[in-house]
Amino acid sequence: MTMERRDVLKLGAAATVAAALAGCSKIASEVAETPDALPLPTGDVTPELRVLHRLGFGPRPGDIARVASMGLAAYVEDQLAASQTEEPRLNLLLSNLEIFSIDSEDMMDIHREQVIAQLQRANLLYAVYSRNQLQERMTDFWLNHFNIYAPKSDDAWRLAGDTRKVIRNHALGKFPDMVKASAHSPAMLDYLDNTVNKSGVANENYARELMELHTLGVHGGYTQQDVMEVARCLTGWTIEKRFLHRRGTFRFDETVHDDGQKGVLGHIIPAKGGEADGDRVLEIVSNHPSTAKHISAKLCREFLGHEDAGWIDKMSTTYLSTGGDIKEMIRPLLLSKEILASPPIAKRPLDFVASCLRATNADSNCGPGVIDHLTKMGQSPYLWPMPDGYPDKAEAWTGSMLGRWNFALALAGGQIGGTSLDASRMHDPLEDVLGRHRSNKDIVEQHSKRLPNDQALALCLSSPEFQWR
Amino acid sequence: MIKLLRSAYRRPNFSGDSVRSFATYHLPFTIYHLPIFKKTEMSNRNKEWWSCEDYSRTQRITRRGVLVGSSLALLGLGLRKSALGQVAVRTDKDPADGNTLVVIFLRGGVDGLNAIVPHAEDAYYRARPTLSIARPNDKRAKSEDRAIDLNGFFGLHPSLAPLMPLYEGGQMAFIHAIGSMDGSHSHFEAMNCMERGLATSGSGDPSGWLARHLMTSPGNGSAMRAVAIGGTMPDSLRGASTALALDSLDDFRLSGDAGFRVALDALYADGKDPLTSAGKQTLKALDALHAMPGENKKDYPDEELAQGLRQVSQLIKSGVGVEVACLEKTGWDTHVAQGASTGILASQLSTVAKALAAFARDMGPRMDKVTVIAQTEFGRRVQENDGFGTDHGHGSVMLLMGGGVKAGVHTQWPGLAENQLSGPGDLQVTTDYRNVFAEVLEKRLGSKNATSVFPGLQYAAPGITA
């Protein structure tokens, strides 16, 4: 066993050297720059397992064989199309949630905590049970990109609409459409204080995050002056609160709009533009090369685990030539050798929980029983207070290990409310969870013999390798 | 559910009682009893009071200075105190031995001007017709709405009253007009800059300043050497493979059989990636905590920061070797309806003051071995906005509490007149926050590498700790 492991490590080291020689010096130098550069796990990952982990939330029993039989390319196309009919179980569980059947204004009768609990539940149900796994991974990605903190103001009641209209509708669509939808989203306008952005005393909060986080990126070439000018352009973009109007929807309030001339990123926006000032701003930032680069870099991190200059260039070019078509940007990356060869990416707690539920084929309502565990690991959906979304670096999650182990034990032991597990239906828990040739397998196997069945399964889920995707 | 109770990062709720009427604070000059210091006058006074010590970057105004009023008496006192401090450091084999640094990041940009109020500044009251805190001697305001005078120039927000005994007892220092050189006005840039210990954000070392300290000093080998209480690992600890993020000490238990634990020990024995090494640290910490005496039941408010500090105290008392503890409190981004003596900011400040007071009470004499830093990424615009709030500014306040801290308000006050402001109307930064951090690392944690932790820093110890 020791020999085997050492061999695996050697192979890993050899692969790194080869990659560096082959021109991937960017990866090597990045690893070296990390203050405490540590080698990543080096288990033998099959292409099917890798793709199921990168495009979605990991395999359910049978998925690996299914992807192998249809071929990787066909699977990627199937996922890009995102047109699979969902399982009846998912539809049934979702239809039980009031947040999908009641308008945001009427929903105010339901207590905020309950609304947030339903939002979290829906989020996890989709991640675990949707057949359109790529759609769900992108939904998670964009929900963090356009992060909104649910407890702020009345946003809890608006987030079901925001998630559907802004995020889910455009998750694999065109990025500029998503920016536009977000800029008209009552939840976002309230979260980032644009509802109080008025002529005379502009509030810069949304204007700044629109450029810094949503589009250009922090070094995207805008100045404090641009922030102030964009804020002026967006004065009056607010939420309808008048009697006898469609309350809670987007409204342009011309009475508080600053109708003077503005200059944004070198473009002159003439006076008297009204609502069109904001539209023009969205157009300018959406078509900006910095935005293409910023979004490409983030997508690159999402799928490769690091920023690769070559891929960023390639994807930026596609962004600019297709009007920010997300599918076209990521298709070559998803079909690339790099996605198979790149170092593993740490699962964030949501990734971990979803992949546990999928690997064990658990029957879960994804309710508070599961969410409480996720909260202990530090990644409760919709509850990241800052607009930058949950961190994506492994180092940000080193405190979640105990939470992971305790979740694995509770799940396997049938101690999570609303969640049950039939381990006897798993063909071979060890293989289903860890795959065939993982380096942790020997240790797990050896210790499993002395443990009750449920804890043996928990051990697979608790192993270092299962923390990576 | 704990996360739900966390105060909102940006609370928009407009609470009517938090907005004071204009008249309350629009006061005639005649009622002042204390002289109003102009910038030049104040600098001269500083020279007179403190010429005995060379603080190249930071001049100081202390409560004691105002009260005693005699430069000679103060000269003697100041020297004696610092001399004693030196002796203490020299006789100690290792100054870091058993010392703990607690860093509280107040995220969102604390309005330093309303926390430590420059009540002698007319410009402050002009810029904040509805949000200002009344002068300590303002008879028109109710006594509970007035600032609590510290030194004739600065006063505490009334919600910080629980800190007053600590200030008077010589355990608390405020550094005003402090910050980074980052002028981005972005929370994330400014926080990132400070947590990485840089002058400005952008390129530079990607690791955190506390992580660099931990990685460049020998350390005590404890599994609990660096702990973050709360959900995620702060950027200041990024790159410290030994740092642990704990949601709560009380929940820090592993279920499962003994055999499961043995298996985890085997699985996490030799892994070197960040998560495997985190797993190994976690297993060590479980052992350390298992050996700890029972939970301390001292009185702490039932709120996240206070409960976090309660756990830090528990860790310190049980001697598991915690050297650095990080906590945070969000909800300072008061763009809208910030309030004055009551309201959003007041309740935030009150929470912090009560939590710190409870911690100091609990620690008792052990506080001599503990230093608490409460920092924020930037202050807020001097001029209040149309939404009864304040926008992102620059200079703010930092708080230091604990043993070896030289009590007082330490500042090179830049003034609030229009021509004294920076950027779009911000309090200037006159003290580089890294000088304070470096001094704390050197004096309190015995760092020999304090300056290398902050690359490019022209280190000038501000003399706030002994």
Oligomeric form: heterodimer
Task: Write down the overall mean pLDDT of chain B.
Answer: 78
Helix content bin of chain A: 55-70%
Percentage of residues in DSSP E strands of chain A: under 5%
Number of helical segments with 4 or more residues of chain B: 16
The parts of chain A where pLDDT drops under 50 for at least 5 residues are: 1-39
Structural class of chain A: mainly alpha
Cα Rg of chain B: 22 Å
Tell me how many strands of chain B there are: 13
Neighbour order of strands in the largest sheet of chain A: 1-2
Description:
The complex is a heterodimer of chains A (469) and B (466). Chain A contains 25 helices and six strands. Chain A is mainly alpha-helical and 469 residues long. Chain A has three domains: 1-37; 40-168 and 347-428 and 448-453, no CATH class; 174-344, no CATH class. In chain A, strand 3 (262-264) and strand 4 form a beta hairpin. The longest helix of chain A has 20 residues, at 2-21. Chain B is α/β, with parallel strands linked by helices. Helix content of chain B is 34%, strand content 12%. Chain B contains 16 helices and 13 strands. Chain B has helices at residues 2-5, 22-25, 39-50, 63-68, 71-91, 112-115, 122-127, 164-168, 187-196, 209-216, 258-267, 274-290, 304-317, 344-363, 433-444, 450-453, and strands spanning 60-61, 100-106, 116-117, 148-149, 155-156, 172-179, 226-229, 244-246, 324-329, 370-376, 396-402, 408-410, 431-432. The radius of gyration of chain B is 22 Å and the shape is globular. The model of chain B is unreliable at 1-95 (pLDDT under 50).
